[in-house]
Amino acid sequence: MAFQLPDLPYAYDALEPYIDARTMEIHHTKHHQGYTNNLNAALKGTGHEGDIASILYSANQADTPIPAGLRNNGGGFANHCLFWTVMGPGCGGDPSGDLAAAIRRDFDSADAFRTCFERAAATRFGSGWAWLVYDPAGGRLEVYSTANQDSPWMGGHVPLLGLDVWEHAYYLKYQNRRPDYIKAFWNVVNWAAVADNFAAAPEVRFQA
Ligand code: MN3
Question: How far does residue 80's CA lie from ligand 1's centre (Å)?
């Protein structure tokens, strides 16, 4: 079964003024659609099936390196699927509940977490992503960045929050000012969605 481009859960202009409508439309209809199409092409005849997280995880555990087409486009598909859902209009603010407690436990404070995440996003050279992930092995949260479209799923981690720092994600509005885009991102983070991801993370199982 082919993977499909998911609808955005809000309008293209819903994240204004922090992320502009034109960027959102191009990002969704061109970039994410492109990863989706190329992922389906890359999967043809490989025998991989099931959810994208399991495909990325198991392909990366194989004795042979994960094929570039699957790595780039499978990662691109999965990363953007998450990205749209962890943002929303009228969001921002602070994490709460169990997620906030886990952030304090693993980063000392919400502010220290933010600093750590911003640094990961700002220092990723070239294209990539900043992540807040859940590591099932230790049951803890981690922040790091990945290059290109590499996904935390490939390493067996559960992505909870991701920020796309490819220039296509911000260049129309922010040009070279990636730090301004990173700061603006906090105004659109859907912490309720991130909390849902966190609550579900310990139950995630990769299919064989
Ligand atoms: Mn992107």
Answer: 6
Quickly tell me which residue has 């169990």 as its tokens: 98
Q: Rounded to the nearest whole angstrom, what is the distance from the C-alpha of residue 145 to the centroid of ligand 1?
A: 14
Is residue 117 packed enough to be buried (19+ CB in 10 Å), middle (13-18) or exposed (0-12)? Answer: buried
Residue at 84: amino acid letter: W
Q: Extract the residue ranges of the chain whose pLDDT is less than 50.
A: none
Measured in Å, residue 12 CA sits from the centre of ligand 1 at 15
What separation in Å is there between the alpha carbon of 201 and the centre of ligand 1? 23
The confidence score (pLDDT) of residue 194 equals 98
pLDDT tens digits, 77-112: 999 999 999 999 999 999 999 999 999 999 999 999
Q: Helices 68-85 and 33-43 sit at what angle, rounded to 10 degrees?
A: 140
